[in-house]
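Title: Comparing notes on inverse folding

I've been comparing how different people in this forum approach sequence design from structure. To keep things fair, I'm posting one structure and asking everyone to reply with a full sequence. Here's the target:
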């Protein structure tokens, strides 16, 4: 079925009257815990894949706990559906929630389970990192299954490769081009935890989100992923 072309209303919009139909034909909403780190990485990747802002809305609410983030994603998704019925927009094809399992670790795990169990959360996808998003960044440079005490330890190790790293860091293209390595390393870590009944530290699901974004762009622009 052909989708209607639409006009700007919602996260990522710059002004009314701007066309809001995905150039890729696939619309994403990504709600992130981080104010700068995650959005900066995702925006750089979005640009590298030549996905327009209309393709990938990136939202950061004031609250950062898993339940608040998930409810934000639910509200934006449902509001988008209402606008779609009015002909302003198209519904999101994929809605992702991105957050970490940092300290207090047990409490974050509990909140994460509660968030994913919400009745309204059906159909949402989650990209969770343990202990933090920086572990996904680190996997671009090295493979490790050694558990980390907290995000500070991960950041310290990552600065061994990128001394200028801060929370507001925007990755250069030469870093983004290492994405296939990070995807492979992330899958390896998950398989290790699965085979050894590990607790998930360290691990990340950001590679699943990246795969979806990669598949949404034109074939000749896609990374080759196993």
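Reply #1:
Here's my take.
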């Amino acid at each position: 079925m052909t989708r209607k072309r639409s006009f700007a209303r919602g996260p990522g919009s710059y002004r009314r009257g701007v066309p809001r139909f995905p150039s890729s034909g696939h619309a994403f909403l990504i709600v992130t815990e981080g104010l700068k780190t995650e959005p900066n990485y995702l925006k750089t990747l979005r640009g590298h894949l030549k996905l327009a802002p209309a393709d990938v809305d990136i939202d950061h609410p004031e609250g950062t706990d898993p339940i608040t983030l998930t409810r934000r994603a639910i509200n934006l998704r449902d509001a988008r559906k209402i606008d779609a019925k009015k002909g302003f927009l198209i519904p999101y094809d994929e809605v992702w929630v991105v957050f970490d399992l940092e300290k207090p670790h047990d409490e974050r795990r509990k909140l994460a389970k509660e968030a994913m169990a919400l009745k309204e959360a059906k159909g949402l996808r989650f990209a969770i990192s343990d202990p933090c998003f920086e572990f996904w960044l680190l996997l671009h440079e090295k493979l490790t299954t050694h558990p980390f005490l907290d995000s500070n330890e991960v950041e310290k190790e990552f600065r061994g490769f990128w001394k200028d790293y801060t929370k507001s860091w925007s990755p250069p293209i030469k870093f983004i081009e290492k994405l296939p390595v990070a995807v492979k390393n992330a899958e390896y870590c998950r398989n290790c935890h699965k085979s050894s009944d590990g607790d998930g530290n360290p691990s990340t699901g950001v590679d699943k989100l990246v795969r979806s974004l990669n598949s949404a762009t034109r074939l000749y622009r896609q990374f080759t992923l196993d």
